[in-house]
Amino acid sequence: MTYTVRGADRLTVRDVSFQIGPRESFGLVGESGCGKTTMALAIVRYLARNGRVSKGSITVAEPGRRGAGHEHALRELRARTISMVYQEPGRALNPSIRVGRQLAEVFEIAGLSRSEAAEPAEESLRTVQINDPGRVLQAYPHQLSGGMLQRVVIAMALATQPAAAHPGRADDRPRRHRRGGDPRAGRRRCGRSSAPRCCSSATTSR
After folding, report:
1. How far is C-alpha 24 from the geometric centre of its chain's CA atoms?
2. For the residues 186-199, what does the mean pLDDT come to?
3. What distance in Å separates the CA atoms of residue 155 and residue 130, rounded to the nearest whole number?
4. Could you give the CA distance from residue 117 to residue 105 in angstroms, rounded to a whole number?
5. Are 92 and 153 in contact (CB under 8 A)?
6. Which residues contact 67 (CB under 8 A, 6 or more apart)?
7. Do residues 86 and 153 lie in contact, with contact meaning Cβ atoms separated by under 8 Å?
8. What are phi and psi of 28, to 5 degrees?
9. What's 180's DSSP letter?
10. In whole angstroms, what is the distance from residue 172 CA to residue 116 CA?
11. Cα–Cα distance between 104 and 107 in angstroms, integer?
């Protein structure tokens, strides 16, 4: 990956090659600033305007189907094929809208009516081991813990059954272990992949 800064091209990520199959998880581990998130952003074509894949290619889901393309193709890619779970889930949610409305909107974009989207929205929270989905759906983002918000965003990412999802690192691990739930179970049941996980050198992926 290359960024153009003040008229000069600066190579930021190089010599990276990997392939992720169905139901596989892939952990990308390295020091802070080494390019883990940049790689994930490149896969879904969220790089800044001055960034580009300067050599090689990125293919998602099918041979010949790439992350680049016109606006309609990009919307389809992000809506139906690949999802991203950001490291700070609170920033991915609108603080003025209830969680249930935001989660249901994902299903509405996929084609369901507003009334039809309510049931799968609640079920998606059960998939990520939220024990009281009704309460969470009625809550505003600031009323939930960081770990709970992470689960909500994971549920949103998996809602339309993408081929791959990019999990962050701000999940509530102690809470998950106490409740005995594992958000990865939903990914395994749905046959999805986890594409590269952003981990610091001190945080390993299981």
Report:
1. 15
2. 50
3. 10
4. 8
5. yes
6. 42, 43, 44, 45, 58, 60, 74, 77, 82
7. yes
8. -105, 110
9. T
10. 30
11. 5
pLDDT value for 70 = 63
- pTM of the predicted model as reported, rounded to 2 decimal places: 0.66
* For residues 41-56, average pLDDT: 89
Sheet holding 82-84, edge to edge: 25-29, 193-199, 164-166, 82-84
Query: Tokens at residue 139, please?
Result: 């809550």
Neighbours of 80 (CB within 10 A): 15
Residue 60 has φ and ψ, to the nearest 5°, of -120, 125
- Condensed to tens digits (0 to 9), the pLDDT of residues 87-106 reads 788 888 999 999 999 999 98
Q: Residue 205 is encoded by which pair of tokens?
A: 């992926």
Residues in the chain: 206
Contact 132/162 with Cβ under 8 angstroms?
Answer: no
Q: How far is CA 111 from the centre of its chain?
A: 20
Distance CA 129, CA 132 (A): 9
Query: What's the one-letter identity of residue 15?
Result: D
For the residues of 61-72, what is the DSSP string, one character each? SSTT-BS-S-HH
pLDDT for res 119: 92
Q: Which residues contact 26 (CB under 8 A, 6 or more apart)?
A: 18, 20, 193, 194, 195, 196, 197
Q: pLDDT at residue 117 above 50?
A: yes
